[in-house]
Amino acid sequence: MKEYTVIYEHTENNWAAYSPDVPGCMATGKTKEEAERNFRDALTFHIEGLKEEGLPIPEPTSEAGRIRVAA
Predict the structure, then answer these.
(1) How would you write the pLDDT of the chain (71 residues) with one tens digit per residue?
(2) Which pTM value belongs to this model?
(3) HEC profile for 29-51?
(4) Could you give the C-alpha distances from 21 to 7, 32, 43, 64, 68, in angstroms and in order?
(5) CA atoms of 71 and 52, how far apart (whole Å)
(6) Angle (nearest 5°) at CA 50 between 1 and 27
(7) Distances in Å between the alpha carbon of 16 and those of 35, 53, 54, 58?
């Protein structure tokens, strides 16, 4: 079991989700929750494909945080 950092971005029309540790794997959804579900499915599919091809599974190394500044 691996735990990846996921970045969620709200756009004008939907939400996007991706992990900096897994290039090329992303998903979208009308809500953040839908994007999360879709990304979980996409990530599972992506990792299964890497395994089938005998390619290495990316290690989760990214962390995310928030910084508050006056604006």
Answers:
(1) 999 999 999 999 999 999 999 999 999 999 999 999 999 999 999 999 999 999 999 999 999 999 999 99
(2) 0.90
(3) ECCHHHHHHHHHHHHHHHHHHHH
(4) 11, 20, 11, 12, 25
(5) 48
(6) 75
(7) 6, 27, 28, 20
Report residue 43 as tokens: 């990530």
The alpha carbon of residue 36 and the mean position of all alpha carbons in its chain are separated, in whole angstroms, by 8
Identity of the amino acid at 37 = R
> How many Å apart are CA 1 and CA 30, to the nearest integer?
28
